[in-house]
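Schema walkthrough. Field components (list of strings):
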Amino acid sequence: MRKVTTPVITIIVIAICLFLAGCSQAQNKSDPAATATSTDLLKANWDEVASQAKGQTVNMYMWGGSESINRYMDEWVAPRLKEDYEVTLQRVPVNDINDTINKLLAEKQVNKKEGSVDLIWINGENFKNAKEQDLLWGSFDKQLPNFNQYIDANAPDIKDDFGLPTEGLEAPWGKAQFVFIYDSNKIKTPPTSMAQLADWVKQNPGKFTYPAPPDFTGSAFIRQALYETTGGYQQYMKPLDSDSLTPKLSPLWNYLNSMETSLWREGKTYPESLAKLDQLYANGEVWMTMGYDPARASNEIKKGTFPASTRTFVLEAGTLANTHYLSIPFNSTHQAGAMVAINFMLSPEAQIAKFDPLNWGEDMSLDLQKLSPEDQKLVSEIDRGIATLPAGELASHRLPELPSAYVDVLDNGWLEYVAK
Amino acid sequence: MEKLTMKGLRHYLGFPMGLLLTFTMALPIIALLVNSLSFGWRWPDLFPQALTNRAWSYVLSTTSGTYASVGLSLEIALVVTIINLVLGMPGAYALARYNFRGKLLVEGIVYAPIIVPAFASTMGIQMTFLRLGLTESVLGVILAHLAPTLPYMVRALIISFQTLNPSLEDQARTLGAGWWQCFWQISLPHLVPGIVAGASLSILISLSQYLITFLIGGGQVVTLPLLMFPFINGGDLAIGSAYAVLFSGMAGLALYAMSWVLKHYYGKRLDFHI
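Field assembly_structure (string):
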């Protein structure tokens, strides 16, 4: 008994492998019934959807790093959804929604028909990947009563998600806009264009920087600079052609390089994330930060992280805006419940609550003109916080996002021409 | 003579050294605690402008899911550690006592998870578990946690077995002890320090897994790190700090409870020196 031989080990290993292989074959036999009902659901009328949804539990995968968003979902949306529609909403916190797209992709590869993701919060690059890999269920938006009643489905910033047609695979949940955040005690008159920003940076060395792309916000800052240094966004609203794009980009790299030595730490290093830049701003090391959420500055003042003199500004020629969406994956097992949940989140009631900074403070995806006069009054009465720009001023300074194929080219270009 | 010097050293340096050690270990936790409670704590202020319970009231609220995640984290760590003990004991015994062909290979496989990046192996585990229907279940997460934890358990037990002189067991056997009695009364008490070391590492490593739990659990197995990571990455450092303090407390208590149980049980028999 003192000698265990290699053949014995080999036999055990082979036996385990065979067992595993056998199991995986069994798993591949999935029932076709589930898919049949899910395509029917895409044609069903709303009453059928609502009655099928009753009693379902919907798993919503979404970024989980914000107290106010989590609270809005858990304490405002979920109880009402339960009460009024008998749908249980279970929020699954995710660090990066891209991980969830990868999870769906893996499930697609092994042909897993019954996934646990019923509802997913995405846009841009993640939507592009999901759409291209066929990870989304189908065109469902026109079935939602609230979508039809309150959303301007033909608006360019609703119809296209970073230049890619949504084709009803996702329904718009909210809007975000790029704003610059500054300390009004230190900066009396903030710049109104990227050119003025560069002048300001040179006059105040060390007081400005931006997160290094491919950080989401840093990458948006580069695109913001692209629009203003190369003559507007219109020329980019078409599929990417790398060859003709490259020469067009040199004014952008020149612009960024010209301010580099006046940046924080002389541009030798950049904050790796928006969170790091925010920390520099909170500590007074830099005098500006930025972000894709117009209400964030007010929220941070409320939390005590940003000084009370913090304010925001947009550029005269406008800043980037995008819409984010809710979607249903191909292998969701509670599609009816997910549709009911999305429809509820697009209701004026839920959207106005979301707009209120006491809950979240984010822009509505609804068309203001389509709301009832009472609701419009409600919206206008909400105090969005001292640092948040009025809704009208934001809306009149909105620029569409680039098709997401450009994003990678710009991020890589930055590493090549600026970071090096 | 040597004993005397050691005692002298202990006498004079024991207290300040202990204080220094406690201080260096406690300092990060204190900083986290202050961070989780502070409102407007900016450089160069030495103290926060005010205190707030915002972060804690969120972390401890019933909707945040914290309580369930703490329970689940501990449950997974406990089961993982028990399985590790059951697997590690015979494994370590064989590796410490016998020489056989392919021993190096077996050792290599057992220690591989320490060397191979967790991400690479987890991707493979994920695809296999998907086919087997083991993803999104607590069982799947427990099995996946075995990979990074088992090597430490085996390592700790091997060292314990190596310091256990086989003649002790032979003596017991010649005096009429059965196999089980010999293991229970002779081997096991000697192994307790190794078990404590291995189980501590197993518990700590299991508790702190993010990637494996996320990929294999698919978001359906929500342990404490899953709640904590988005806040640390997303920049709400107050809530991130509150979670970190909670995590340290949970891990510390788990370790304390485990060593208390083991020592309490075998305490009377612990009569040896390493």
